[in-house]
Amino acid sequence: MAAAAGLAAPSGPGSPVGPAARDLFAEGLLEFLRPAVRQLDTHVHAVRESQVELREHIDSLATELCRINEDQKVALDLDPYVKKLLNARRRVVLVNNILQNAQERLRRLNHSVAKETARRKAMLEATGSYPQGSPSK
Question: What predicted TM-score, i.e. pTM, was given to this entire model?
Fold first, then answer.
């Protein structure tokens, strides 16, 4: 079913499609996925920036609560609220670290895909197997 829809390149010993066609298919698939990977990377970067801003606001609020607590003549116990803010800050930092690691893996994957695509393209061009009108860039 997928082969009929043009989504899979047939392979195997009896297949009429050779390695050059499979490489061309793989390159086309990578070019198809590359915008989604870049968009995901952009969104992850935006989330990381907003989390840094949130962490800064939490720090500022915690500092302000401590200052208010010290300045109060009446004994208000704001410590539980400060602890909740610091716990929220810790979770924001944890999520930010997870996103940073995911973004780094995504960057390495994108680099690896680009390197492999360039290697295959150079190999195909060197052997003269690149079909005319191919989507090479």
Answer: 0.51
